[in-house]
Structure formats: C-alpha cells, structure tokens
Amino acid sequence: MTTAAAPTRLSLIKTHATAQILEQLRIPVAVISSVIFPALALLFFVVPQQGVVEDPAASLQAVAQLALFGVMSSFLFNYGIGVAEERQNPWSSYVRTLPVGPLPGTLARAMTAMLFALLSLIPVLILGWLLTAAPEAFTSGDLPWWQVPVSVVVWLLCGLPFLMLGLFIGYMCTSKVAIAVTQVVFFPLAFAGGMMLPPFLFPDWLNTLSLFLPSRAARDLAVFTLSGDGLHATTILCITAWTLLLGVLALWANRRDQGRRFR
Predict the structure, then answer these.
(1) What pTM, to 2 d.p., does this model score?
(2) What element of type H or E holds 186?
(3) pLDDT at 15 over 80
(4) Which sequence spans correspond to the domains of the chain?
C-alpha cells in the first residue's frame, strides 16, 4: 500500500489560484466591468479634453492615474468584498480549518487580484496609445520604451497598500457591510489621491492633505515611473509606511477573525 505524497506549498497556491480565477469568471459581468471601467473613465473624462490629449506629458499623467485607478479598484474590491463573502461560505470556512496555514490562499488571492488588475491596464494602455499624444514622448526619444513595462510592474506594486486595506475590511465586516465600506473608502481615496483630477488643480488645503494619503503616494509614484515627473520627497516614505501599517492591521484582523471562529 502506497501513501500519497503531501501537496507542496506551490501546488496548493496553484490550486487556490485556479479555484479563485474560475470563481471570478463565473460572473463575467463583474469581470468585464472591472476591466473596462478605467478605460471608460479615460474615454469619457480625458479624451474629450483637447488640452490634455494633445500634450504628451499631460497624456502620460492621465494614463498613469487611470491605470492606478484600475489597480486600486481591483485590489480593494477583490479583497474587501471577496474575503467578507468567503467568511460566510461554509466551504471556505472548512478550508481554513485545514493544516495548510493562511499563506497559500492569501498568495493565491494576491495573484488573482494582480491578474485582473493587469487585464484592466491593457485597454487603458491601448486607448492611451491610440487617442492621446502619450506615444510622442517615446517616439521623440524623450523617454525610453522600457519605461512602459517597468511602469506596469510598479503600478501593480503600488496596489499593495490597497490589497492590505481590502484584507482589513474583509476580515472586519460582513459581506453587505463590506460592499458599503469599500465603496465609501474607495471613491474619496481615489479623488483625494489625484486619480480623477490632477493634484495641481486642488486647493492648497486638499493638496497638502492628499500628500499624507496612500492613494496620493501611489499616484505620484505611478506617474513618475511612466513620465519622470511628479515624485515628492515624502512619496516613498509615505507609501512604505502605509503598506506596513495596513499590513499589520490586516494581520491583526485575520488573527482576530481566526480566534473568534475557530477557537
């Protein structure tokens, strides 16, 4: 009689990721809406502004802002609402009792969120290429082409504090409450972070306040990576501090939920 080998950590992550991707694809409307929403924002709010689409620097800034908008939306809603719904699912509760630890499921959800965030970047980049003057910054030789793939990686990494915030909301709220809380948190953070309106149009008080927000730090880093402009002295410190703080809060919320339900 032979004994089946125990699954490796990598195979567990792959299994969790496959299940979560299939679960997302079972609701195609939700997937399509999250993927095209940033592109629609670019199409309806940026493209009609001739002063923006005819200026390569302004076009790059708008593309970077809306790309990060899509990443932030994918991470925050995927975790904030997805984790809250999982906590009410008997199968997910059973899976959490298995002796594999929280790491495979958490990493798999991060991979799933990054995959759908990456999909949301593609239409934004295509529309930015076709309908704005952003490509002129590269064809003229002012910026190297390698900044585009590097920017995509940085944009995904800039979503980490929102991933942690989504985890915190998901472990602290029921699914119905999580939907409301995520929406209430998302739109003010996106607006005050300069993703819908460039920060130079803000009044002084809002511009000063936004420099302390994770969304503004992520936006400034995203714009700087693509265009070379917009980075402040405190940007890296701010996004690092917020990522660590929200990571600690997410870990505490996970342990709190684990302690309440399984001990």
Answers:
(1) 0.85
(2) helix 175-192
(3) yes
(4) 10-262
